[in-house]
Design brief:
Elements: H1 13-23, H2 31-38, H3 62-78, H4 91-98
Helix pairs in contact: 1-2, 3-4
InterPro entries: EN-1/SPM
Length: about 110
């Protein structure tokens, strides 16, 4: 693993997102944006979510593919104008993009 798995420290994702928003002038955020940012740097760092960023922008390269798969699946369901950076996560789309639960487990 090239770097830390995430930059949240002991904060929950919601706490990380609120801290990022406060450090960046109260910019709005969604759960997907918070997830992406937590894999790019600390909440106080000069970072922002850009869907065009390469896999190297994230602490773990697989984060990029997960974000891309979710965004594509969500735009199929919600339409091409759907904005992943501000909309809440859709649990059904998460399951579709992730391939569902392995072996039918709960």
């Amino acid at each position: 693993m090239p770097g830390p798995p995430h930059h949240q420290g002991n904060l929950t994702l919601s706490e990380y997102a609120a801290r990022w928003s406060a450090a960046h002038g109260g910019q709005p955020y969604g759960q997907l944006k918070a997830f992406a940012l937590s894999h790019k740097g600390k909440a106080t760092a000069d970072i922002d979510y850009n869907p065009e960023d390469p896999p190297e922008a994230y602490s773990i390269a697989t984060v990029h593919s997960r974000l891309s798969e979710y965004t594509s699946a969500a735009r199929e369901v919600h339409g091409p104008e759907w904005d992943p950076s501000t909309e809440p996560l859709d649990g059904e789309v998460v399951m579709r993009a992730g391939g569902g639960k392995k072996h039918g487990r709960y």
